[in-house]
Structures are given as C-alpha cells and as structure tokens.
Amino acid sequence: MAQFGGPFHVGPSGLEKTELWTYHLWPFSFEVQADRVTSIRISDPTVQ
C-alpha cells in the first residue's frame, strides 16, 4: 500500500482466504492472505 496506494479492485483470488488486488493502470496484481503478499502476477500489455 505504501508503494502503490490502494488497489483499484479487491476480489476473491480463487484460493482460500486470499484476496486478489488489481491496479487498473498497471499490468500487475497481488494475491494477499493475512495482510501478506503471497503472489505477484505481471501481464504483458502487448499480448492480447
């Protein structure tokens, strides 16, 4: 949160007790469980 601010959207990630935080303007998201990042997903905006 200190680096990127609040996420654009928070929703379920598909993993138990884990949220998916997405950032509208940037091509990455975080999976967060118990206030800790458990995974980072980065997409290539040039790939459709």
Describe the structure.
With 48 residues, the protein is mainly β. It has one domain (9-42). 0% of the residues lie in helices and 44% in strands. Strands 1-2-3-4 form a 4-stranded antiparallel sheet, with no helix packed on it. Strand 2 (19-22) and strand 3 form a beta hairpin. The chain is globular and about 30 Å long. The mean pLDDT is 91.
Low-confidence segments, given as residue ranges, are none
Q: What percentage of the residues does DSSP assign to strands (E)?
A: 35-45%
Average pLDDT metric: 91
- Proportion of residues in helical segments: under 10%
Q: What can be said about the biggest beta sheet? A: 4 strands, antiparallel
Task: Evaluate the radius of gyration.
Answer: 11 Å
Give a quick set of tags describing it.
4 strands, 0% helix, mainly beta, 48 residues, globular, 44% strand, four-stranded antiparallel β-sheet
Task: Summarize the structure in short.
The protein is mostly beta strands.
Which SSEs are present, and which pair or pack?
Layout: E1 9-12, E2 19-22, E3 28-33, E4 36-42
Antiparallel strand pairs: 1-2, 2-3, 3-4
